[in-house]
Amino acid sequence: MGKLLASLGDFIQKFFCESMFDPIIYWALGTSNSKGMVDAVYSGLMDKSKSFLLMSPKSWASGSGWSFINSISSAFISVGAALVMIFWLIGICTDSLDIRSNMRLEVALKQLAKLVVSEFLVTQSITIVSSLFGLVNALCGKFNSSFSIKVSADVYKCVAEEKLGQNIILVLLSLVLLVMTVVAAGSILYLSIVRIFKVLMIVPYSAIATSTVASSHSVSSTTVSYWKYTLATILEASTMLMAVNLSGYLVSSNGTILDGVIKTSGSFQNACGWIISTIIILAVTMGAVKEAGQVTHRVLGA
């Protein structure tokens, strides 16, 4: 009777493992010959994030976003050109010591040159900003890293043992890993798209911000602040690309990074340790990419 019950238990355990839990694990983590959903989602979203970070705002969304910015930029340039004269006069009044000194030829030429240069910078501000878009490709265009999650061999050893309790735990951990992969890689993709929106939204204000350049020192600092912020926002993509590429190496080298931290003698414990450590690495890389934009602004003092 005991042997019969043991045989029945083995049959039920094998049946549930082979028909229910093993397919879920293979679907989530893949096999030795095919990708699982975790690897497919991670590599797909990370590749798309990298392409968005390298993409110029001019070509994003087939250029429709940049076309819209161009269509409204003339209004901002008109306002900026009008403000140049106002701020120029404020600068003259602020810096004047006496009327006689302002009538000197060199002073008059200096003030006239400031006005001409300011008007030129305002009218060409959109062109100047757009020329900065190429910096990201120049700095990071040759970055080359592959995005993949290599499943530990211990996971497949556990699946082959066909122990019901182990497989249930592996299924739950695999699904948690899949969710974490979607959240982490999806957040990085979200940040890369938001970066393009930020760049496009600050471009039209270049004309208005630059209109203060001919004014007094205290007023013209607005121009400096704007261009520092714009440069930092554009170069956010470079820092984020560094973080994205580093994350590719981190996730691919998961087994060596946390080796000895979550490591035991059994294949089941090692399999669980690999999944848990991969979840930790994904969370770390998501935070690193999110912090990358702030790092750029701090470095450039924007």
Shape: elongated
SS strand fraction: under 5%
Q: Helix and strand string, N-terminal first? A: HHHHHHHHHHHHH
Low-pLDDT parts are: none
Percent range of helical residues: over 70%
Rounded to an integer in angstroms, the radius of gyration calculated over CA atoms is: 29 Å
Termini separation: 78 Å
Give the helix tally.
13
User: What's the story with the biggest beta sheet?
Assistant: none
Q: What is the arithmetic mean of pLDDT?
A: 81
Structure explained in plain terms:
This protein has helices spanning 2-29, 37-54, 64-95, 99-102, 105-123, 125-131, 134-140, 153-161, 164-202, 205-210, 217-252, 254-257, 267-299. Helix 7 (134-140) runs parallel beside helix 11 (217-252). The chain starts with a helix and ends with a helix. The chain is elongated, with a radius of gyration of 29 Å. With 302 residues, it is an all-alpha fold. The model has no long low-confidence stretch (mean pLDDT 81). 80% of the residues lie in helices and 0% in strands.
Short characterization:
By secondary structure, the protein is an all-alpha fold.
Tags for this model:
single chain; 302 residues; mainly alpha; 13 helices; 80% helix
What layout of secondary structure does this protein have?
Blueprint (H helix, E strand, L loop, with lengths): L1 H28 L7 H18 L9 H32 L3 H4 L2 H19 L1 H7 L2 H7 L12 H9 L2 H39 L2 H6 L6 H36 L1 H4 L9 H33 L3
